[in-house]
Amino acid sequence: MELQPLGPVLGVEVTGVDLSEPLDNERFAAIRQALNDHCLVLIRGQELTEGEHVAFAKRFGDLQVHVLKQFLTTPYPELYVLSNKAVDGKPIGNHKEGWNWHSDWSYYEVPCFGSVLYSREVPPEGADTLFASMYAAYDALDPETKAKIADLKAVHSYSGYYAKAFGDREPLSEEQKAKTPDVVHPVVRTHPETRRKSLFVGEDIVKEICGLPVAEGKALLDRLNAHAVSDDFVYRHKWRVGDVVIWDNRSTMHKATPYDDKAYTRVMHRATIKGTDRPA
Ligand code: SIN
Q1: Structural domain includes residue 37
Q2: What's the number of domains the chain is made of?
Q3: Is 169 exposed, middle or buried (0-12, 13-18, 19+ CB in 10 A)?
Q4: Mean pLDDT, residues 172-195
Q5: pTM above 0.85?
């Protein structure tokens, strides 16, 4: 197994591993360590069944099941499908999901730890995913901003995001809303394993900063969001079929990008690993 960094701040490619075969503890521990060291691990050229994908993701922890049950269209409810494809007129996945900077499920009290995304069909152009290191973003802040945001908290809202991203669709049900109430998290969090500080912001899901006048809070959030995704902190992933990308949601944000969805189909399966700590 070999490791090759993908860029200066984020990401490592691991080669010499076939995830469809049993992975011994030593090699899994090396992947787990690589995730802590690089925030994102890429393993290309995988041919996985849905069951093998789920089994690999479960090595990292328990998996979370998405509230949008209509997009759990494989035999495995742990796999959330992202796609523009329809079968018999019914979408098999959520199209245009995550086309905003975010970390997965930041709107839970205990947000998920990581995600394992597997590409089954990808367009020949477009549909890259951008990943940004929130360690690098935090480290690069000036001392005044670090002091200003040290104790700030912000509201993360799934219903706010859903209304903005999918306002043309059926609204969330009462049950879905009850499962995803707004939550408050610190704007700066400390990674429970590496103990490094990172910026914990995001577009659309982060609704407001608590305790500041609305206009001031919005201006600060906009400034932090713009800073967080500066080119210097970003790795752009160009997908090939068979890529497995694992990322740590506690130290990164990501954003999917558009493609010609009339000409091409994209099918991605995401397993999302439950977190164990409230951000602090
Ligand atoms: C996501 O997990 O938010 C979507 C990523 C992607 O579709 O590239």
Answers
A1: yes
A2: 1
A3: exposed
A4: 96
A5: yes
Q: Decide if 35 is inside a domain.
A: yes
**Pocket mutation for ligand 1, best pick of 97, 101, 120 (most atoms within 8 Å of C-beta):** 97
Ligand 1, from 82, 238, 239, 248: best to mutate by most atoms within 8 Å of Cβ?
A: 82
What is the CB < 6 Å shell around ligand 1? 82, 97-98, 104, 115, 117, 129, 254, 256, 268, 270
Query: How far, in Å, is the centroid of ligand 1 from the Cα of 129?
Result: 7
Instruction: Tell me the two tokens of residue 220.
Output: 């600060």
d(CA 279, CA 193): 12
| Residue tagged active-site, from 53, 66, 104, 191 | 104
Give a yes or no: residue 104 inside a domain.
Answer: yes
The whole domain housing 124 covers 2-273
* Residue 11's CATH number: 3.60.130.10
Mean pLDDT across the chain: 97
Query: Does some domain include residue 136?
Result: yes
| Residue 157 backbone dihedrals phi, psi, to 5 degrees | -135, 115
